[in-house]
Amino acid sequence: MNNNSGIVEGIVIKAFGGFYYVIDGGKEWECSLRGHFRHEKQQVLVGDRVELTPRHGRAGVVEKVLPRSTVLVRPPVANVDQAVMVFALREPDPNPGLVDRFLIAASVNRIEPILCFNKSDLDVDTQLEFIARYGQSFRVLVTSAKTGEGLDQLREALRDRVSVFAGPSGVGKSTMLNALIPGLKLKTGTISDKTKRGKHTTRHVELITLPAGGLVVDTPGFSSLDLPDMKQVDLAGHFPEMAELQGECYFTGCLHDQEPDCAVKKAVESGVIQKSRHLQYLEFLGDLKGRKRF
Question: Does domain 71-218 match CATH 3.40.50.300?
Fold first, then answer.
């Protein structure tokens, strides 16, 4: 979008080799950064809305980053509406701790999460309990990039929104995007026979235009994610089933651990809250208690 001063407003779709690629409608600009970004140590992220000054051809200079609505640190991306968290049902097996860390990261950043359990062609029956663990509190899709199962529902969920695809290596993110976007041809990888983990195929963060409308971010895969830094008392607020009971415990600031007359622990005992989710909460709580505070 151009204004009367000649400044163009667009979205950063990728950063590579010291250049930032910005789309303005159907046009793509190859941009450098104005010097003040280095002096002020300001980072420009994929997804940033920026103002640029056009140069010759399709070259430009990024002048300003407009205010961000959301920011993720890992993957580093700005202004996304929702996070599609992709995990495989098999090869590699899903890691509950990593799933929950993703969900907390999305909650902290006020980004709507969608859990996508891929590779249903390999195994569904033995993971039904695992899938049900999240179905009560989150939107869950079961897909197969190989057979096409669930892709129509995923395509509709992505329509006209800015979404980030994130998850471990080897779960099928790139294969899924290739199925959703004909002709994309993202490089895909295989599972290591030795480690049973996926091999990295996406090397950088990039926004990709969807045929039916919307943008999606494919990101490099990873096998670990740190829990965001927060106060211990705030942790339960990022578990939706526990957040619903906020204020019903006897003690103000209850950590739902050793305290008596705890509404969350009563809900676990009655089966309203799954025991596995509470145990994961306690593990994260212990992590926060063990951190040094300065």
Answer: yes
Are residues 217 and 208 in contact, defined by beta-carbon separation less than 8 angstroms? yes
pLDDT for 189: 46
Does residue 104 contact residue 185 with C-beta atoms inside 8 Å? no
Q: Low-confidence residues of the chain, pLDDT below 70?
A: 1-5, 74, 185-203, 220-224, 292-294
Measured between alpha carbons, how far is 198 from 172 in angstroms, rounded to an integer? 9
Q: Quote the tokens at residue 22.
A: 């910005």
Domain ranges of the chain: 8-65, 71-218, 232-290
Give the DSSP letter of residue 190: -
Q: 232-290, which class in CATH?
A: mainly alpha
Collapsing DSSP to helix, strand or coil, 174 comes out as helix
What is the widest separation between alpha-carbon atoms in the chain? 70
Strand partners, 16: 19
- State how far the Cα of 48 lies from the Cα of 63, in Å rounded to an integer: 12
Number of C-alpha atoms within 13 angstroms, CB side, residue 30? 8
166 DSSP β-pair partners? 85
What SS3 state is found at 208?
A: strand
The DSSP 8-state label assigned to residue 191 in this structure reads B
Residue 51, helix vs strand vs coil: strand
Topology annotation, domain 8-65: OB fold (Dihydrolipoamide Acetyltransferase, E2P) (2.40.50)
Q: Provide the strand spans (E) within the chain.
A: 8-16, 19-24, 27-33, 49-54, 59-65, 71-72, 77-78, 82-88, 112-118, 139-142, 162-166, 206-209, 215-218
